[in-house]
Every structure is written in C-alpha cells, then in structure tokens.
Amino acid sequence: GFLTESEHSLLHEAQEFLWRIRFALHLLTGRCEDRLLFDHQRTLATQFGYRDEGPRLAVEQFMMRYYRTAMAIGRLNEMLLQHFQESLLYAASHDAEIRTINKRFHIRNDVIEATRPDVFRRYPFALLEIFLLLAQQPEIKGVRASTIRLIRDHRYLIDEAFRDDLRCRMLFMELLRQPQGIMHELRRMHRYGVLGAYIPSFGAVEGQMQYDLFHVYTVDEHTLFLLRNLRRFSLPECAHELPLCSEIFQRLPKPEILYLAGLFHDIAKGRGGDHSTLGAEDALSFCLHHGMSAYDARIVAWLVRHHLVLSRSAQREDIQDPEVIARFASVVGDNTHLDYLYLLTVADIRATNPTLWNSWKGALLSALYLATAAMLRRGLGTPVDQSECIRTTQTEARALLQALSVDDHAITTLWSALDEDYFVRHEADEIAWHTEAIVATRVNDRPLVRIRHSAQRGTELFVYARDQKNLFALTTAALDQMALSIVAARIVSAQNGYTLDTFHILEESGASITQAQRMHEIATCLEHTLTQGEIGPATRRLRRHIKHFKVPTQITFTDDPRNQRTVLEVISADRPGLLSAIGSALMETGTQLQNAKIATLGERAEDIFFITDNHSQPLSPEHQWQLQQALLHHIDPATPAKAHA
Questions:
Q1: Sign of the four-CA dihedral 316, 320, 326, 328
Q2: CA-CA distance, 206 to 134, in Å (whole number)?
Q3: What mean pLDDT is reported for the chain?
Q4: pLDDT band, residue 547 (cuts 50/70/90)
C-alpha cells in the first residue's frame, strides 16, 4: 500500500530504461561497465535510435531522457522514504501535535500537511501557497508524504488559468521576496515538479544537458546552483567568501530582480537561436504578467540578454585599455545595472563548473567592475587622462619602493627604459614588486624569476630576462611541463634589451599556488630552463575526456588601429603544449606579443593575443597569412598547407 498503481508503473518504466542502458554498456565495452561515461554516450544515443535534430544533438536528447528518469526516481524516493518514516518509524507514537495554519494546511508533528484530500482541487492556488508557508515558517521540518503525493497528483491543475490567477502570481512573487528559505523552497518546488509546471519554459530545460566538458550540470540544476550562489551573497555568515559581492548585494534595491534574471538567464537553451535574446523575451513577458513595473521588468530582461557580456569583456578584451572600459560602460549605462550584472555573472560562472572559478577570474571581473563603476561616476563624456593615470601610478609605486628603501636613482634609471604602456598595463604594487626585484638582484645575463600570490590577482610569475625570440615559447613549455595553467600573460620589451614578462598561473586543477615550497620549485625550474635555452618534448598526456571532442582550429585576425596592434584569436582543442606551439609560431614569423588572455572552456581553448610586428606596428595581410600557416603547422601538423591567395 505504499505505492499507487501509477507510481509503480513509473518506477517499473524507469527501471526498464536504466537496465537497458546498463545492458548496452556491457555489450559495448565487453565487460561489466556501470558508468555512463562520455566515451559511450554518443554510441548509445545512436543505438537507442536518437538522431540530431537541428540544435539538439542525439546524445543530448538521449541524456535528457536519462536525467529525467533519474529525477523521476529521486522525486518518488523522497516521497516514499518520508512515507516509510511516518508509517514505520513513528507508527508506535499515537500522540500527534496538530497546529492549524489556515483552513488548507496544518502542522502535524513539525511537518506540514493538507487538511483534507481535496484541498488542491478546491483551492488550486494552494499548490504555491504551501511553499510560501514553508519559507515563512522555518520551524516546519518538511512535508508529509500524503501531501507530497497530493501535490504530485494535482500538478495537472497548473494550467493557463492557474498561471493567470492573481493569487498564484502574488504567491510566487511573495516567495521571491522572503528574507529566508527562498532556495529551499524553489528546490522543493523543482523536486515536486511544480516549478517546471508553473514556468513551462523552465520545465522544458529540465534534464537538458550540453555535450561538452564546460557545462557539467543540466540547465535546471545549473540554474538552481546559480540562485543558491545569489542567496549566499545576502547572508552575513557568507560575506567572507566574496566580500565585494556581499557588499554590493546589501545595496540592491530589489533582490527579486536578480533572482528572476538568474531563473531565466538560460531558460531558452536547446531551442536554437540566441538563448540570451529568447530568454529575455520570456523574462519580460513573465515579469509584466506578475505585476512588476515596466522599469523593473526591463532590467530583468536586460540582465538575461546581457548575462554573458561582462565575463566575455573581462576574459577576452584588454581591460587595461580605457576604450574597452568606456565601451562596456556605455552598454551598462548606470551603476544599478552594473551591480546586478556583476552579481549575476559571478554566480553564473561559479555555478557552471566546480573548477571554473578561480582567483584570477575573480580578479578580472572585479577589476572590470571597479573600473566601470569609476567611469560611470565620472561620466561617460569625461575620458580618462592617460598621462595623469600614469603619474598617479608612478607616484604610488615610488612610495611603496621608498618604504622598502630602494634607491631612488635606480628606480628612475630602470623606469626610463620602459614605455608608457608598461605603466598603463600594471598596477602600482606590481610595478613596485618588479622594480624592487630587478634593482635588488643587479641582474646579469641570468634570467630573473620571481613568484608571489596576492589576494587581488592570484598567483603571479615575473620573468626579467634578455630579449630572445623563443622566450615566450620556452616559458610556456616549461610551465606546461610542471602541470601549470597560464591564464594571462603580459609581455613588455624595455629599451635596455630586456623583457618584463608577467604570467598569471594556476595549478592544473584550477587552484591557486600559495605554498612557498611549490613557488620555489616553479621559480627554480623555470630559471634553469631559461638559462639552458631549451626544453625536452612535452610529456604530459592528453586527458581522456578530450579525445571524444573534435574542435577544429580557427584563427581570426582583427585590427586594433587605435592601439597600433593586431588582435589574434585562436580557437582549438585544449591539449598539453598548445601555448608553446603558438609561441613557436609567433617566434618563427617575427611576431611580437604584448598581451595574452588564455581561456579554457572544457575541451576548447579560446585564446586571445595582442600582437605587433618587429616595428611595433599592426600585422600586414602578408604577415597575417604567414602567421596563420605557422600556427596551423604547429597546432595541427597534419593540416595541409594552403597556397597563398
């Protein structure tokens, strides 16, 4: 009597499907294999009869059915275990304490229960009311099994008339405005199938996966993780995790705007077309339908439409360039939009992949946020005076150096060999760190290598060495051999024949490097490699998962005439030694590197390089073609050379 006929049928169908997958895995691998790995998912999707349909890959359709099956079992188990607990563990207790909430619900022994079996049929809006009551009364420990079953059995009542009911719309919005319990109840709504029924477009992405190594959660789970991250910004006990986010959240005029943007940001994935634009349309319609002002509804829609803009700008553009800041500030428009967008972006990245967020990514986003906020306060019509910024930076750096008793004449001598661009692209504390290291060691022909970790920018590696053509290739190869990831590089050529190269590095896992012993090991190994001037072949193996994804190499050049340089974008499959291969191509073609932004998105590497020729000028079409051929040769040696058009 614990399962109804329909529940037993659901359980049986789920078991049949999972056993078929397991049997197919055994046949495919020729052994007992109970893991549904990337290695097998495409083949199984084909065997089960799925075919690519426009933007929806066969493997994604197959995995959606798997995830929805697992979700259905989870929902049924929660109800069943609660039923067992009530009927078996507490059966001997005849003392039931009942406290009435209203005519629809009461509390029985700390769990909420419907007062009668037909409560949802008589009062359909109670399907949302119960979750609001749970959020408002945290002393309630859960939902009685019989009431969970009633909710499941009455989800069919959530139709257009239900969604148009003013009471339902008010209940949903009131839940988002609660000071506590929002995430617990949204998750519970999701588990009971109410959230997907109330917002059909959310129901459509339940179990929707993306077949790559970047998005590790289904869209619905990713969205709920994002909302959890947003809620943590509001909690004083979590303020130490991301202090800037917590500070910004406290001044938000209406947090529900942020929650709705998070709920809708990926809701159009899998439909084809731009999911940001389609999701913005859904969000605007939903918000207006739920009584939000036109102004607030437009902010939600704007956030959904632009939810990728801040991360793309921070990770793909040169945010030391005032023009980049001005362009981004013009998109944002005001500090209110900027605050909402920053919080949404941080929560989104942290909810995409457990290894995606790191100190460097946080530093990039906060740097762009602070620079944009300053420009918005100053006014978009008031451009930054670059010479004034340089003077301010130099004054701050010199003060730091004087506190370290660094000789003032030595500072002036070194700085006189550096172009203004160096002081634009580095912070005062970085300049002081570089200068103190160079002056203190009285550099000879041996390369100078220093490493440090800062809370603001993560782990920084500084190399000061005589300029040589293969310096970048050697450095990147050596770091790759030490299982380190490079996330950014800045290359500065001084007039004294030396280069000042700054790399931001992480462990392969994405962790910051904070242990002194590990830092010493990295610095020692790199100094030895640069002194020897050569390194052996790559020994790191390609990760197993990468082998199942084909990412064709794409090379794109864009002119940046204002800064007298060319922007190179390389998209390719991530692999050991990729940066070193690119560095070798740059060296062979006489291409100078100024700045690099390195992004690894699962199986894809999307790297941006700001480059010039040997005369500090943008690359000519002929030079671009030569570099393209060299890149293809080093990245994909099997690619046949193309005749020059």
A1: positive
A2: 24
A3: 90
A4: low
Q: DSSP assignment, residue 31?
A: S
SS (H, E, C) 217-248: CCHHHHHHHHHHHHHHHHCHHHCCCCHHHHHH
**565 strand-pairing partners:** 560
d(CA 192, CA 155): 9
Token couple for 246: 């917590």
* Beta pairing, strands 142-143 & 111-114: parallel
Give, in order, the Cα–Cα distances in Å from 453 to each of 243, 423, 428.
19, 21, 16
CA atoms of 493 and 464, how far apart (whole Å): 10
- For residue 563, the 8-state DSSP code is G
Beta bridge partners of 465: 499
- Written as one letter, the residue type at 6 is S
d(C-alpha 563, C-alpha 478), whole Å: 31
End-to-end CA distance of the chain: 77
Give residue 272's pLDDT band: very low, low, confident or very high (50, 70, 90): confident
CA distance 83 to 271: 39
Query: Count of CB atoms within 10 A of residue 570's CB?
Result: 22
pLDDT value of residue 61: 95
Q: Sign of dihedral through CA atoms 245, 246, 247, 251?
A: positive
Band of the pLDDT at 485, cuts 50, 70, 90?
A: confident
Distance CA 174, CA 176 (A): 5
Residue 565: count of CB within 10 angstroms of its CB:
23
CB 416 within 8 A of CB 435: no
Map residue 450 onto helix, strand or coil: strand
Sequence-ordered strand ranges (E) for 32-121: 98-100, 105-108, 111-114
* Other Cβ atoms closer than 10 A to 580: 23
Tell me the C-alpha distance between 418 and 431, whole Å. Answer: 11
- Rounded to an integer, what distance in angstroms lies between the CA atom of residue 362 and that of residue 512? 12
- Whether the CB-CB separation of 419 and 454 falls below 8 Å is answered with no
Q: What pLDDT was estimated at residue 311?
A: 94
The token pair that represents 6 in the structure block: 């329909």
β-pairing, 458-466 with 604-612? Answer: unpaired
Nearest-CA neighbor of 134 among 82, 178, 103, 96? 178
Whole-number Cα distances in Å, 54 to 57, 205, 272, 391: 7, 16, 8, 56
Residue 86: what are its φ and ψ, rounded to 5°?
Answer: -70, -40
Length of the chain: 645
Amino acid identity at 389: C
C-alpha closest to that of 176 among 189, 186, 165, 168: 186
Pairing of the two strands 592-601 and 484-493: antiparallel
Q: Is residue 28 within 8 Å of 40, Cβ to Cβ?
A: yes
Burial string for 180-216 (b: 16+ CB within 10 Å, else e) reads ebbbebbebbbebbbbbbbbebbbbbbbbbbbebebb
User: Residue 89 pLDDT > 80, yes or no?
Assistant: no
Which stretches does DSSP call E strand in 398-542? Answer: 448-454, 458-466, 484-493, 498-507
pLDDT tens string 204-222: 999 998 887 677 899 999 9
Helices 38-47 and 58-84, interaxial angle, to 10°? Answer: 100
